[in-house]
Write a structure and sequence with these properties.
With about 375 residues, the chain is mainly β. The chain has a domain of about 170 residues: OB fold (Dihydrolipoamide Acetyltransferase, E2P) (Beta Barrel). The chain contains one helix and 26 strands. It has a six-stranded mixed β-sheet with strand order 9-14-15-12-11-10, with no helix packed on it. The protein has a five-stranded mixed β-barrel with strand order 2-3-4-8-7. A five-stranded mixed barrel has the order 16-17-18-20-19.
């Protein structure tokens, strides 16, 4: 069955911030480690610490449904004090869509329910399509192979539909996705975007400071100036624009791996990118450390191979890693439901119905094979 996509422009504020940064063509390319949430106007899929408190919970994953917002099967209540960020820039609740990859910071209420302090929407890739394979459900851009699955969100209520086969080389898209490693991604949401800007997230594999080139993941890119302030092996997000059809990096930022201050409860879904060391899995750029006491379900530690879908719960460590106490293997990030030690959860016999817009909880009121995927463009921040 065909895959469907709808049009949606990048928010004006986001694009404006990106283009302002791109005007500095003559300036050396440098890493801005002091403000990981800003710059370039496009965010990555890496997780930044950004002040997450050690007494709360941090959840990284896909927006599964609303009411208020569900990530990794957990409900996070939204209220008038919840803050929103879209690719590092101020946003609103209307910037949050089904299929978005988000980082939610929350605090537990006395009754165990979770109230979201903030919701950060993250984008993995943006740029011009180099190849489309509608039969295999694959899009290639910036050398990255993106798998569009039956679960990928591609449109919303009332949005016009476009078959994946109608996308062509040169069309520009903006993709929320989870990394599988080696330049492979699984798309959770795909939307059309302006063709001037691009974004690539991943580890730095090589740097040529003399000639101004750097390799991120599987793609080598020209830079507008000598790359400085970044190191081999570091997770970064590179933003730039197309110059006579060639992508040129204008800004690169380190993406801090830490998901929270030491002691923060962490829940995460994604894919095993690699096994860099014994007892360590890499997912979403974050080292996940497991021990003999870690509980694996759906298989054993040996079954957690590169490309395997996983969901984990653990505790943030001082070195930015997560010491995991539970690992669920082959857990579809779109539907995973981590059992909660925080509060009882009612059992559900079927997948709950989703709504496109979340209800907002007021602070003084407590409330307690193949489907066609859809693509939808986010509402523009600030109108």
């Amino acid at each position: 069955m065909s895959t469907y996509i709808t049009k949606e422009p990048i928010g004006r504020r986001v694009l404006f911030a990106l283009l302002c940064g791109l005007l500095l063509l003559a300036a050396p390319l440098s890493a801005d480690a002091t403000d990981p949430g800003s710059g370039g106007g496009i965010g990555g899929t890496g997780i930044t610490s950004e002040g997450i408190g050690g007494t709360g919970i941090s959840s990284f994953g896909v927006v599964q449904r609303f009411g208020s917002i569900y990530v990794n099967g957990r409900e996070y209540l939204l209220n008038d004090t919840t803050g929103y960020r879209l690719d590092g820039h101020p946003g609103t609740v209307r910037n949050v869509h089904l299929g978005d990859v988000v980082l939610v910071r929350a605090q537990a209420k006395p009754d165990g329910r979770l109230t979201a302090d903030s919701v950060h929407v993250r984008v993995a890739l943006a740029g011009r399509i180099e190849k489309v394979n509608p039969h295999a459900g694959k899009i290639t851009l910036l050398g990255q192979v993106v798998h569009v699955t039956a679960e990928t969100r591609t449109s919303g209520p009332g949005a016009p539909r476009l078959k994946l086969a109608q996308l062509h080389a040169g069309d520009a898209v903006r993709i929320s996705a989870l990394a599988r490693g080696n330049g492979r991604w699984v798309a959770t949401r795909v939307v059309r975007a302006p063709a001037t800007a691009f974004l690539l997230s991943g580890p730095v594999r090589a740097i040529n400071r003399t000639h101004g080139y750097l390799t991120i993941g599987t793609r080598t890119l020209a830079a507008s100036g000598p790359p400085t302030g970044i190191a081999i092996g570091e997770q970064v997000r590179a933003a730039g624009r197309y110059v006579r059809g060639t992508p040129v990096v204008m800004r690169v930022q380190p993406v801090l791996a830490a998901v929270g201050a030491p002691g923060t409860t962490v829940e995460m879904s994604g894919y095993v990118e690699a096994r860099p060391d014994p007892g360590v899995l890499l997912a979403n750029g974050v080292p996940l450390r497991y021990t003999a006491r870690t509980h694996f379900s759906g298989g054993t530690a040996a079954d957690a191979r590169a490309g395997t879908a996983i969901a984990v719960r653990g505790v943030a460590e001082p070195d930015g890693s997560v010491l995991v106490n539970r690992v669920v293997l082959r857990a579809d990030p779109m539907w995973v439901d981590l059992p909660s030690p925080l509060a009882p959860r009612p059992a559900a016999s079927t997948r709950p119905e989703s709504r496109e817009r979340p209800d907002i909880e007021r602070p003084d009121i407590e409330r307690p094979d193949i489907e066609r995927p859809e693509i939808e463009l986010p509402e523009q921040p600030g109108g």
